[in-house]
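User: Predict the structure for this protein chain, please.
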Amino acid sequence: MTIDRSAPLPALAGSRRMLEWSLVAAVIVVLGTVFFRQVQELQAQAEFSAVQSTLGALRTTLVITHLQRSIPGGTGALAASSVNPFDLLQRPPANYLGEMNSTQAREAAPGNWVFDPECVCVGYLPLHLRWIESQNGELLAWFRVTREPGSMLIAAQQRYVWQGKVLE
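Assistant: Here is the predicted structure, written as structure tokens:
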């Protein structure tokens, strides 16, 4: 007995193909969703590292400037009330917007640094606000420039947690 291959497919085979394609589409959607979440998490980790790196550069610059000014023939001590640490960098970061008060800083584009001369603070607005948590719900992460015996420091105004890691 021979099978006639020119005959149309039965309805059962058509619905089976539809089921197969539906399963393939579902798998692609699930994999795409997982991939998208992983990319977002990686982006958050990269931004956290960039923020930590910038804070480290600002702190290092303050220490080096303090040491340069404390040696004989130096230009004198730094006054905490007048120091914008971004001005001490050889080249400020590309995402530094300049001096702004806290109201202007909240309206700035996400992913940028600012300096508030009124409180002598460095501020950073994250790209995605859900990545950072603060005690009072502040949108920006603020770091105060303070004068300590011996040198100047940059310290967080409150505890900031960035995806489970403390931002210092």
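The longest helix spans residues 11-70.
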